[in-house]
Structure formats: structure tokens, C-alpha cells
Amino acid sequence: MAETKPTAGAAVKTTSSAQPKTGSNPISWLAPLLCIISGYVIWRFVLGAPGNFTTPDPDSSHWFWPNHKGPQGTLTKMYEGGIIVPILIGSFLVVVTFVIERFLTVSRAAGSGSIAEFVRNVQFHLANKDVDKALAACDKQKGSVGNVMKAGLKKYKEMITNTELVTEQKVLNIQKEVEEATALELPMLEKNLVFLSTIASVATLLGLLGTVLGMIKSFSALGDEGGGDAARELSKGISEALFNTALGIGTSAVAIIMYNVFTTRIDGITYGIDESGFTLTQSFAANYK
């Protein structure tokens, strides 16, 4: 009986070298909570320290939000901006935290050296049918593109010695390996960016909310008191309320800028990953027909 080889469309069971990355991500839920708490601590005990006011609140029962009067210094006036101010300070701390976290992660994912140069180097080694040197280049790159390329190269090397499959099946197996490795790398790159995009939208709204609440309080005092003193208090109240707007807009601006910076860098890494997959499949199809 004649021996037959499986067709290109047949199901082929192969072992994948791509392994899921395990581990929890406590920073995604713990950091925002700690930042909001830190924002309150800064607002209450640093900006709201009794020594920063000419008339501190003598009532100790107002421990959560003392009614201090007469702020001494520009920054101290932020305290009288209201309870939205600590939330905005906390939001800014969240932005700073995730900017640092994303910078470290994306920098590590980019690896060492130029991605384009790395891909050209691998293409050169594959053209010379030297898979081991291509794998060594992946170890040297140490980034997401290198990780995906290395997973694909291991399958590439396995398919070279495989005598049971036709070329089309081998190319499909390499492509599948690259896709699985890519699916493991991309979530790590995009993780936690949602905090920056969310704060970019919410911080401005929180700032406007704090301003509106401050304006309501100021105009209410104007209606109750009347006279020149009330007008003076109104101007002070408006000035304090606008601190909310300034904090909200500033936080939102930083979040938007850094979000765009990180997405641009991630797009560059993603393009390198796509190019690496194309390089492997085209090289195998050309060299091992």
C-alpha cells in the first residue's frame, strides 16, 4: 500500500513553544487606590496644615475637612478649592505612576538596538540558512519582537527537519506559532493604558465639577451677605474654585500626551512583530520548497 502524506488542509498537531506569561497585576488595582489616598493626605495634612492659615479651624470634630481661613501662600489656596482637589491630586499621581510603569515596560519590550536593523539581521542569517545565528540575534535583542521571532524560529528549525508535512503545512505551522507568540506579547504592551486614556477624559470633567461647586458656594455667600465684603469673598472664592479647573486640565494634558507617546511606541513594536512573522514565512517558503 502506497504511503500518503497529509494534505495542506489536514489538521496537524504540533507543540507550541510559546508559553503564557503568568503572574498577577496588583498595580492595576492597588496603585489608583493608594494614589487617591495620597492625594487626600497631601491636601489635608500638607496643604491643609494649620500653620498654613491665619485662622485655623479650632473645632477638632472637623478632622476630615477642617474649615481653615486665611491661606498663606499660593499653593495653600488650593486647599480651599474643596473636596474635589484631593481627587484631582490623586488622579495626577495615578498618571505619574502609570507613566513610569508604562515607560519601563515599553522600554523593556522595545529591546536593545533598532528593531528594523534586527529584522534585517535575521533576514540575512535566514537567507544564509543559518538559523542558530538568527536565534542568537533574538537573544541579543531581548524585546517583544525578539521574543516573537525566537518562538517562530524554533518552529522554523523544527519544520526544516520535518519530513511528514508539505511546505504549505510547515509555513502554516510557523505562522500559527508567530500568531500565538504575538497574542502573548501584545496584552503586556497595552496593559494599563486604559488608566491614562480614562483620566485624560475624566480629569477635565472633575476639574469643572470642582469649579462649579466652588462657584455655587461663592454666589450663595454673595446672596446671603451682600455688600462690598461679599464681593471680595466672591472674587476669592472664584479664584479658589479655578484651582480645580487648572488641576483638571493640567492632569488631562499630561495623560493625553503620554498616552499618545506610548501608543506610538507600541505601534512601532507591533509593526516590527508583523514584519518578523512575514520574514519567517517568506524565508521558509523560498528556502525550503
Radius of gyration: 29 Å
Strand content: under 5%
Number of strands: 2
Low-confidence stretches: 1-20
Number of helical elements: 8
Please outline what is shown here.
The protein is mainly alpha-helical.
Features of this protein?
289 residues, mainly alpha, two-stranded antiparallel sheet, 2 strands, rod-shaped
Give a description of the structure.
The longest helix is centred in the last third of the chain and has 61 residues, at 227-287. The chain has helices at residues 27-47, 84-110, 115-127, 131-141, 144-160, 167-190, 193-225, 227-287; strands spanning 53-55, 69-71. The two termini are 27 Å apart. It is mainly alpha-helical and 289 residues long. Residues 1-20 have low confidence and may be disordered. The protein has one domain (29-46, 79-289). The chain is built from 8 helices and 2 strands. The protein is 72% helix and 2% strand. The protein has a two-stranded antiparallel sheet with strand order 1-2.
Sequence-ordered SSE layout with sheet pairings:
Blueprint: H1 27-47, E1 53-55, E2 69-71, H2 84-110, H3 115-127, H4 131-141, H5 144-160, H6 167-190, H7 193-225, H8 227-287
Antiparallel strand pairs: 1-2
Helix pairs in contact: 1-2, 2-7, 2-8, 3-4, 3-8, 4-5, 5-6, 5-8, 6-8, 7-8
